[in-house]
Each structure stands twice: as C-alpha cells, then as structure tokens.
Amino acid sequence: MNDLLFHHGTRETLKRQAQEGYAVVVPLAATEQHGPHLPVFTDSMIGEHIAFEACKKAAMSTKLLLAPTLVVGCSQHHLAYGGTLSFSSSTYLLMLKEIGESLVSGGFRKIIYLNAHGGNEPFMHQAAQDLAVQHDIWTASASYWSLSRSALMEIQAQEMGMVPGHAGGFETSLIASLAGHLIRSDTTDSPKHPQCSWINAGPPGSFVGKHSYLTGVDGYTDSALPADAAKGSMYLQAIIESTAHWLVQVGNWMNEGAEVTK
Ligand SMILES: [Zn+2]
C-alpha cells in the first residue's frame, strides 16, 4: 500500500496518484474553547484520529490520500470565551474552496471533506458544491456524527447527553479515551449543568439560535460527569467503522461515475 498521507508524498508521487484517480480526504476540525475542562484542540484530536483510522481502513478497498487536518475552523460563536482561533464564515468558505482549487490544480479530480466541528458544516457542504459546479470533478462532504449516527444510537451513546454536543459527556468520553491526561478533572462540571433543550432539537435542516447560547450554557451543552474512557473508545470504534464504510461507498460512486462519463 502507498503511504496514506498526502504530505508524505513528493510532487512526483502526488502527480502520479492524481493521474491514477486517487481521492483526497481533507479533514476539517477546530481550535476552540471546550468548556473549563477540555483542551481547545479537542475537535482536532478527535477529527485527526477518526480521519487517519477510517482512511487507513478504507484505503484497503479504494484509492485515497489523507491531506493534513485543517485545525482552525469557523468558531466565531466561541470567540467570546477565549481559547479560540477562528476564521469568519466568509473567509472559511473561501479557504475551503481554495484548498479544493489547489488540489484541482495538482490534477486531483476527487475531493472529500471530512468534518469534526459543527460550525464548519454548512461551509464545507457549500464549498463541495461550488467546486463541483466550477470544475469537472467529484466532491463529497460529511461530518463524522452524521455518518455514525445510527451506529452510535445502537450502542446507546445518547446516555452521555447530546451526541456529539459540545464539551459534554460524549466529547469528554472521546478525549478520555484519546488523551485523558489533558482533561482538567478539577474543573469538570457539576451535575446540575442546565441543558438548552432547543439546541439541535428541531426537525433536521432547521435552525434556532440565541445570542450567547449557540453552544449551550457557558460554552458547553451538557455535563461532562458521565464521561467514560472505555465507552469513548467504543464510540470512536463505531465512528471509524461508519466513516470507513462511507469513504469506500463514495470512492465506488466516484469510480463508477468516472467510467460512465468516458
Ligand atoms: Zn468539539
């Protein structure tokens, strides 16, 4: 198997892989406040782990390369809390499109955005759509929680609180599994953390927002107290399986479609 990492390639190997029809997976994440207890790199650590493990699995069945994780995202709604690096929504959309344009310039014709931060999601889908309108290429985009929703529900991930939520029981479980030493247990939340019942509670595709409460109360959605490292690694496993499955499926569609248009 070729090296999975785009950034381990040379211009020569990448040019050849572009001609051979490799898809490039671009992981999107964030550097933003995650409550008083989790590191600001939470989404990047989670996203990078999922992207690497899922791509490693999928690469056994479909040709793909994994690009470096874009570790700064659109996190404007977290800036007020500190500990956040962010692009505005218009800059972020443009940045994603220009990353795609760079790949197109390098000869790649299949681009897949894989996301680990909610604030990036609408711009990721828009960038994927704009690129496929402007160039004769394939694009795809998804957030890990959408790909793994049914697998996570089957293993009762909802017992942690919101899935994925923000800095609550679910994300804290994932970090407990990946880098537990970074959790500040002296500052984890009291069990009385109030929930914002309306966050993500409407029908799929709807949005309800309130100033200062876009990510829950005090910048997190639910209590971290139920978090559990063993459950976190079980959730990660389910996410990696679902994501790898989707990458193979998308890779197959892109290959079939490439043949049809010839
Ligand atoms: Zn997060």
Automatic annotation (TrEMBL):
<protein>
    <submittedName>
        <fullName>Creatinine amidohydrolase</fullName>
        <ecNumber>3.5.2.10</ecNumber>
    </submittedName>
</protein>
<dbReference type="InterPro" id="IPR003785">
    <property type="entry name" value="Creatininase/forma_Hydrolase"/>
</dbReference>
<comment type="similarity">
    <text>Belongs to the creatininase superfamily.</text>
</comment>
<keyword id="KW-0862">Zinc</keyword>
<dbReference type="Pfam" id="PF02633">
    <property type="entry name" value="Creatininase"/>
</dbReference>
<dbReference type="GO" id="GO:0047789">
    <property type="term" value="F:creatininase activity"/>
</dbReference>
<dbReference type="InterPro" id="IPR024087">
    <property type="entry name" value="Creatininase-like_sf"/>
</dbReference>
<keyword id="KW-0479">Metal-binding</keyword>
<keyword id="KW-0378">Hydrolase</keyword>
